[in-house]
Amino acid sequence: MSAAEGSGARLTDAQRLDWLRLIRTESIGPQTFRALINRHGGAAAALDALPRLAARKGRSIAVADADACRREMDELSARGARLVALGDPEYPKALRSIHSPPPLIAVQGDLAVFARPMVAVIGSRNASAAGLAFTERVVRDLAAAGFVIASGLARGVDARAHQASIGMGTVAALAGGLDKIYPPEHVGLAQNICARGALISEMPLGWEPRGRDFPRRNRIVAGMALGTLVIEASRGSGSLITAKFAADEGREIFAVPGSPLDPRAEGTNQLLRDGATLCTRAEDVLNVLLPMAGGGEPQLPLFREDERRAPAEPLWDEFNLLYDEVAAPTTVAGLAFDEPVRAAPSPAFADAPRAAHQGLALRAQVESLLGPSPVALDDLVRASGAPVAQVRSALLDLELEGRLERHGGGLVSLLPQR
């Protein structure tokens, strides 16, 4: 292994290109990458050895084209982005120590955020107005205490967490390439994040996210952070996958309790039963993480073979050329691996003519934002983005149907269907 690749010193441009070629080669994932580097002393030697190693297994392997990888690096540079290698000083400290850290990450934005401690804030895509209001409040307090907010740029809680911490430091991990923002309506949010935060992806430019890429992204969200806060999560949701990754890496898990009548609280309530730390305010997180924030996560030596627990199922079709082939599962926690993700519009009835369905769409949106927990009208207006008069009209419709309960102080909640 070369001095730079073995010691954690910054790679040369030639070494960075070799790393990119190796990780972009078919059937090479983070663990196979690490095994090859350890075995051959560097990426260049590993690339030379790949055809011979594959032949021993009775197969051929298509090594990534050098010119294509150079173009990728040039295109990243043109976007104001760069590739950060596992040994670079800018690589997030906590992410470096997970079981399968990305050897290279494409980063666009302010690299200085990676020097600060992070907390992941995640939750339901179909979040309630109360959940969104809590997210904004707790994120502002965490950011004011010096923490960078990490999340996955998804709808709902993720987006609100990023929005509340813009200007104070936030990092969005992407499932696709830096130029393939998902969901597409968050392109503007992604651009705003780059001003004083960063976008991060291990996927190449032009990569459209597929089902398997979201658990991969989730491990990065959890891996960057000292702890993960879950705000609303149904059973089997992606947020619980992120929490599992965090738990497997020995990170702190925090969960916000919710009504047992709200399906969006089933996952968080289960986390609390399983031993997560209860969170009802930012101090519940800060009391645990502030003592850890000074030194960050303990850093393991680069490419150390350690005893940390591997994910229950691999996230890559890795062909271990040195040992055995890694079987590729078809699902991770119920998520299909290779089905293309299609961008579904978030407002209800968005495919129908707007004039015909605007009222129904808003009523459905307001209903989705309500739950058993009382919420203020102002929070509903902010979460829906609709005028106050239209939100009041939607609430009146729900009340006439016997679905709305009014509380003191102008609060409202949703009654179960009879």
Task: Please name the defining characteristics of this protein.
418 residues; alpha/beta; Rossmann fold; Arc Repressor Mutant, subunit A; three-stranded antiparallel beta sheet; 16 helices
Q: Can you offer a commentary on this structure?
A:
This protein starts with a helix and ends with a strand. It contains 16 helices and 14 strands. Helix 2 runs parallel beside helix 4 (about 45-55) and helix 7 (about 130-145) runs parallel beside helix 8. Strands 1-2-6-5-4-3-7-8-9 form a nine-stranded mixed sheet, sandwiched between helices. Among the domains are: about 105-295, 3-Layer(aba) Sandwich (Rossmann fold), CATH 3.40.50.450; about 355-415, Orthogonal Bundle (Arc Repressor Mutant, subunit A). Helices cover about 40% and strands about 15% of the residues. The longest helix has 16 residues, at about 130-145. It is elongated, with a radius of gyration of 23 Å. The protein has helices at about 5, 15-25, 30-40, 45-55, 65-80, 95, 130-145, 155-165, 185-195, 215-225, 240-250, 265-275, 280-295, 355-370, 375-385, 390-400, and strands at about 80-85, 105-110, 120-125, 150, 170-175, 200, 225-230, 250-255, 275-280, 330, 335, 375, 405, 410-415. It is an alpha/beta fold and about 425 residues long.
